[in-house]
Specification:
The complex is a heterodimer of chains A (113) and B (116).
Chain A (H helix, E strand, L loop, with lengths): L3 E2 L4 E5 L4 E3 L2 E2 L5 E8 L6 E6 L5 E3 L5 E5 L4 E6 L8 E9 L4 E4 L3 E6 L1
Parallel strand pairs in A: 2-12
Antiparallel strand pairs in A: 1-4, 3-9, 5-6, 5-10, 7-8, 8-9, 10-11, 10-12
Chain B lengths: L4 E3 L2 E4 L5 E6 L6 E7 L5 E8 L14 E5 L5 E5 L8 E8 L10 E2 L3 E5 L1
Parallel strand pairs in B: 2-10
Antiparallel strand pairs in B: 1-3, 3-7, 4-5, 4-8, 6-7, 8-9, 8-10
The chains are: A mainly beta (113), B mainly beta (116).
Chain lengths: 113, 116
């Protein structure tokens, strides 16, 4: 069965620090890749997505992610985090063959002012 | 509607009672997911509907949980004989199915269930 692994359960950073959240998936076929964010008290919303083309995708609020097919990875990055980035981040993989999305367990990011 | 709508937004129920949670997906979305999010936990997959196919029920934690989707649109998640460990936020998401390019999932605000 397809699985999505987010390596860090909880990350604590100071403002202006760089961020990288890991995401690996198990499915070897064609995938669509997503990062979602859930700010405190808000619903889950899309941060960025990859379908095809340039493996480096840019999303909202300065986030970017790189799809490395050989490593089955889609890590999320931001060069300089802000206090307002405090949230829970979920990686998701859509299996185009099965027609179904699978989510990782999430990473809680706390940014200290 | 404009987004995924869930009702009620909050539900407090007594242990042993049955509850029904409703999800109205975005019009035209053939895929519908139910997830559970407990305090401090990630997303726990419950069930997945895709068009007219048999639902993927592999995530339902017990036979007290069931879900249906009528007419390929509205879905209801039913929890029978609720237990305190059922307390969580229940999230619904919808997306286009396999025929579409944009498979982004859109989430509702969730239903916060508290079993007392």
């Amino acid at each position: 069965a397809q699985s999505v692994s987010q390596h860090n359960h909880h990350v604590i950073l100071s403002e202006a620090a760089s961020l990288e959240l890991g995401c690996n998936y198990s499915y070897g076929g064609t995938v669509n890749l997503f990062w979602y964010v859930q700010y405190p008290g808000q619903h889950l919303q899309l941060l960025l997505k990859y379908f095809s083309g340039d493996p480096l995708v840019k999303g909202i609020k300065g986030f970017e992610a790189e799809f490395i097919k050989s490593k089955f990875s889609f890590n999320l990055r931001k060069p300089s985090v802000q206090w307002s980035d405090t949230a829970e981040y979920f990686c998701a993989v859509y299996n185009t063959n099965a027609g179904k999305s699978t989510f990782g367990d999430g990473t809680t990011l706390t940014v200290k002012p | 509607g404009a987004g995924v709508s869930q009702s009620p937004s909050n539900k407090v129920t007594e242990k042993g009672k049955d509850v029904e949670l409703r999800c109205d997906p975005i019009s035209g979305h053939t895929a519908l997911y139910w997830y559970r999010q407990s305090l401090g936990q990630g997303l726990e997959f419950l069930i997945y509907f895709q068009g007219n196919s048999a639902p993927d029920k592999s995530g339902l934690p017990s036979d007290r949980f069931s879900a249906e989707r009528t007419g390929g649109s509205v879905s209801t998640l039913t929890i029978q004989r609720t237990q305190q460990e059922d307390s969580a936020v229940y999230l619904c998401a919808s997306s286009f199915g396999t025929a579409r390019v944009n498979t982004e999932a859109f989430f509702g605000q969730g239903t916060r269930l508290t079993v007392v």
